[in-house]
Write a structure and sequence with these properties.
This protein is an alpha/beta fold and 329 residues long. The protein has one domain: Bacterial extracellular solute-binding protein, family 7 (D-Maltodextrin-Binding Protein, domain 2). Helix content is 46%, strand content 19%. The protein has 13 helices and 10 strands. Strands 1, 2, 3, 4, 7, 8, 9 and 10 form an 8-stranded mixed beta sheet that branches. Strands 5-6 form a two-stranded parallel sheet. β5, α6 and β6 form a beta-alpha-beta unit. The longest helix has 33 residues.
Length: 329
């Protein structure tokens, strides 16, 4: 009887013992653009990979269209842990790390292959800049999000050489970009992307600067009739995560996040450049698309050669280190 009692008691304890279930970890992500945008789709791909590989232990919640924070607020929000992760224009980090503006140096990247190599995870440039962003802001860079390459827009006549920009009022989106315009003889006017259409329509500026894909998405071809494929700089966003939050995750979950980041980073860059090519082909039927000749491009390169030194003088040793690292690739 005693043995039967012990067996029954043991069975009862097994049945009634609490089942240990891995607690769900929620990762909130603040986005500036809608989920339908390529950057939003990029995060959806990340979400799908992370949730599947973690078996639902990690849940990614997306808050698009600046529901939580505006673009300029993202570095601080993520760095302080107010939100776990988010995307922001790389230029938003220049206040803490001026050297990130290196991607806006004119003709710094020789061609698409050089650009891809320079911005790839683990590259000398990425190692320097990602570490600086983490140290200065507390935000860990998971991956860089390609947005496209810079082009110029104009009305009436095409922009082909620096002489065409002399005394022209040019829409810009950053300090280094503004220096480029000054070197080309123009007058820079800082303006957010959302204000471009009306500014061009109303003639508030003479010349526009933007990513090639934005010409279609923002319908800028309706208010500008020439597009010059200068491709003089890269437009990059970054996907970041609060580092304290990342470090609190298990090694298994950290690895899932890093592997997903590497996968979606390459997916987006491939998609963006393919989208650029497709957009430009489409725009050729709606506006004049100017492909610079080698001779014309060399004029631009020579006219803007002073910008790199101005950048180093302003941004310091880290900027010089980055330029040296990329130039040697």
């Amino acid at each position: 009887m005693r043995n039967m009692f012990k067996a029954a008691l043991a069975a009862t304890l097994i049945v009634s013992a609490p089942i240990m279930v891995q607690a769900e970890t929620i990762i909130r992500v603040t986005l500036q653009l809608p989920e339908t945008h390529s950057l939003g789709q990029n995060w959806i791909a990340f979400k799908d990979i992370v949730e599947e590989k973690s078996g639902g232990e990690l849940t990614v919640q997306l808050f698009p269209s600046a529901q939580l924070y505006k673009d300029k607020e993202v570095p601080e929000a993520v760095g302080t842990g107010a939100v776990e992760a988010g995307s922001a224009f790389l230029g938003r980090f220049t206040g803490a790390v001026p050297a990130v503006d290196v991607v806006n140096l004119p003709f710094f990247f020789r061609d698409e292959d050089h650009l891809r190599a320079a911005v790839a995870t683990g590259s000398p440039m990425r190692n320097i800049l990602d570490a600086a962003v983490l140290e200065e802001t507390g935000a860990k860079v998971l991956w860089w999000q390609a947005f496209g390459r810079n082009v110029y827009l104009s009305n009436g006549s095409a922009i082909r050489t620096p002489a065409d920009l002399k005394d022209q009022k040019v829409r810009t989106y950053g300090k280094v970009i503004g220096w480029t315009v000054e070197a080309l003889g123009g007058a820079p006017t800082l303006m957010s992307g959302s204000k471009q259409f009306l500014a061009y329509q109303q003639g508030a500026v003479d010349v526009g600067m933007t990513g090639a894909s934005a010409v279609k998405s923002r319908k800028l071809h309706e208010v500008m009739d020439h597009m010059t494929l200068s491709y003089d700089s890269a437009i990059e966003f970054v996907a970041v995560m609060n580092n304290d939050f990342f470090e609190s995750l298990s090694p298994k979950h950290q690895q899932i996040i890093l592997e997903a980041a590497a996968e979606v980073e390459q997916q987006l860059r491939d998609a963006i450049y393919a989208e650029e090519d497709a957009t430009i082909d489409e725009m050729r039927g709606l506006m004049t698309v100017v492909d610079l000749t080698d001779e014309e491009r060399q004029q631009w390169i020579e006219a803007t050669s002073s910008v790199s030194q101005r950048f180093v003088d302003d941004a310091g040793d880290t900027a010089a280190e980055v330029i040296s690292a990329v130039s040697g690739m």
